[in-house]
Amino acid sequence: MRSALTLFKKNMQEAKHLTSLYEYLESNIKSPLSFDDLLRSQIVYSVSAFDKLIHDVIRIGMVEIFMGQRNPTPQYLAESISILVYNELIDATVPPKEYIFEQAIIRKLKIIAYQDPKKVAEGLSYIWDEKQKWQKIAMKMAMDDKTAKTTLKLIVDKRNVIVHEADIDPLTNKKYSISKSECKSVTDFLSKCGEEIVGLVNLTS
What we know:
Blueprint: H1 2-28, H2 36-66, H3 74-78, H4 83-91, H5 97-109, H6 117-124, H7 133-140, H8 145-165, E1 168-169, E2 174-175, H9 180-203
Helix pairs in contact: 1-2, 1-9, 2-5, 2-8, 2-9, 4-5, 7-8, 7-9
């Protein structure tokens, strides 16, 4: 889990650099063009970093269960694998069984986006047998679970508007306004949320 968290922090720090670049360009470059898309990119990259963290945490946790290093959860035990993967696991020597299992998990999870609070909770159920996941996460973030889930949903909605609709208001055909403070709050929330999730999942291993 430590490697996943380290990469997550690196990715979030790189996302924050976009605000620094925005500030530099705004202060030093005279241009009729807006640099606001850098701020939009920061939101997109921050959500992407969070999504990847959840994927990594689930993958690592499931491999740990497979290797007997973590207690299995009901969701893990209920998961099915193909006969092809089963046969590969039976005969595996090189590459080792855990590698084959991990690749099967990667193929399964790569089509899932872990951004919506419900999806995040469902994914974590593979490795974390906690019924009130968002209550636990929110408590660590010093907020209630409804606020935490609503905040994440709003962030993901904003990300989707940027990615799929160019952040354009359909009534005016102009881009929605965006600010440095908005970007900071998004990145800070996702950073805190991701770090607390890793901490809670580690406690159960």
